[in-house]
Design a protein that fits this description.
With about 120 residues, the protein is an all-beta fold. The protein is built from no helices and eleven strands.
């Protein structure tokens, strides 16, 4: 397991895990039942830090060189951004318009609504 996070509305738990070699898997579980409700799997250089948007509709997944925004209902990649650095920590602003990414040399803020740093 690389990352784990509860959705802000408390309805789901998401985890990112290294599956095999260069594959990352993001798994969503329903909080009440514990049932697996969605699995997203893709090839990538691994990091797998995750963070839910405040509205619980989007999950940000930080991978080496890429930040992906996933639809939490379908697993569809809504948007990807090329990111700097190989470290991670992710945090959304309370209004969901900014996403902070930890990097080796500081913190980068992304305007999610405009997809620009």
């Amino acid at each position: 397991i690389r990352g784990v996070a509860w959705s802000p509305d408390g309805r789901a738990l998401a985890a990112s895990a290294r599956r095999i070699s260069d594959t990352i898997r993001v798994i969503f579980w329903e909080a009440d039942s514990g049932d697996e409700i969605l699995v997203v799997e893709e090839e990538t250089d691994l990091i797998g830090v995750i963070a839910w948007a405040p509205d619980s509709r989007i999950l940000a997944v930080f991978k080496y060189g890429t930040l992906a925004l996933l639809d939490a209902q379908t697993g569809e990649t809504l948007h990807t951004l090329e990111v700097y650095g190989s470290r991670g920590g992710l945090a959304w602003s309370p209004d969901g318009h900014l996403l902070a990414q930890g990097a080796l040399d500081g913190v980068i803020l992304w305007r999610v609504d405009q997809s620009q740093p």
